[in-house]
Each structure stands twice: as structure tokens, then as C-alpha cells.
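Could someone model thymidine-5'-diphosphate with this protein?
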Amino acid sequence: MAGLFITFEGVEGCGKTTQINLLENWLLKRRRSPLKTLEPGGTPVGERVRSVLLDPELKGMVPISEALLYAASRAQHVNDVIRPGLEAGRVVVCDRYVDSSLAYQAYARGLDFQTVMSVNQWATGGLLPDLTILLRVPAETGLGRTVGRELDRLEQESLQFHKMVEAGFEDLAVRFAERFVIIDGRDPVDEVHRRVIAAVDRVL
Ligand code: TYD
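Reply:
Sure, complex below.
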């Protein structure tokens, strides 16, 4: 495929949104036609699924339902947005992707890693990012940044849960070292941005 597929990952409050917006502006200046998108969501079907997934009232959702709903949103997203974007030669920048399902649903919820992987291979037709940027922030620090706003279903999980997510991402970065780049998300915003650009420049 002609384009480039970049994903951002990390715990709650790691600063993905800020960094994705900065990268989008940088790509625009370089005339690289960024396509910014997010998961769960990114399509009308995905947005409906997202509202189910993040609804704090749905406390009884079992991990398997949760994993399948994330994968359902992803299947639609890959088909309608990500693949067409890549085929058109665009730089697709996605806020979370398969690695979030591995960190949250496999490592933190305890679902079997290979099963979550297979379901996602099915959902995506095996499409993986060219580059995954992990913004590394301790779970406590990230959660601290969410204080004062209304928390969604996942954010309301315990610190212990979010520590497992954090450890999961570390493990994924080792497992998939060929596409992962880790950047310390506690550094000043422009320093993090400079490192993001350096990583993106290498694959452009
Ligand atoms: P979102 O509001 O996008 O959170 P953030 O700004 O932290 O990325 O909500 C997404 C939530 O869903 C977040 O808590 C992570 C979780 N998630 C999963 O558990 N599995 C997944 O596959 C994805 C994409 C997200």
C-alpha cells in the first residue's frame, strides 16, 4: 500500500491527543496529507459501538463482549477509513489500535493473548501499523491528569488495572520491537513532539 500507517498508544492521560494534533500540523506543513482518526470510533458504526463501550452504566459487560466490540469497531474502521486512506497514499495517524486491545483486554482483563490476537487479525485482515509510538507515562501520572473530568467505563477501573495496562504496553514494545518506538511522555510537550517527528521521519 502506498501510504503510511502510524498508531499512538499508552495509558490514560499519556498525552496522545496533544501529540497527534502536533504531528498532524507537522505533516500538513510537509504536504503529506495526514488522515487523523481514532478507536473505538472513526465511523458511524464505530461511534455507536464506542458509546456502548465507554458507558459507565454498563458495569456488567464481560471481557469477551468487550474484546469483540472493540474488534467490531475496528473491522468497520479498517474497511471504511484506514485501508482506503492508505490506498490513497495518505499518512493515517490513529489514536489507539490493536495494541490497545492486547494491553487492555488481554494483559489487564486477562483474556488469552493469542485469542485476542486472532480475533483482531480477522477484524483487520492482518493490517498492522508501520510505526507505533508508545507514550510512556506511569499509570498513576496519567490517571492524575484525568482528575476533575467525568470518567468513562474504562477510566473508572482500579489503579491496579491501569498498572497492568502499563506493563502490557511495555511487553508489547519488546515483542513487536520492529514497529514500536517508546517516548517518555513526562517530558515537555515540544521535546516529546521532536522525538515523535524523528521517529516518523525515519519511516516516511
Ligand atoms: P478514549 O476516550 O479514546 O480514551 P483515551 O483518550 O485514553 O485514548 O477511550 C478509549 C478507551 O478504550 C480507553 O480507556 C482505552 C480503551 N480501549 C480498549 O480497552 N481496547 C481497545 O482496543 C481500544 C481501542 C481502546
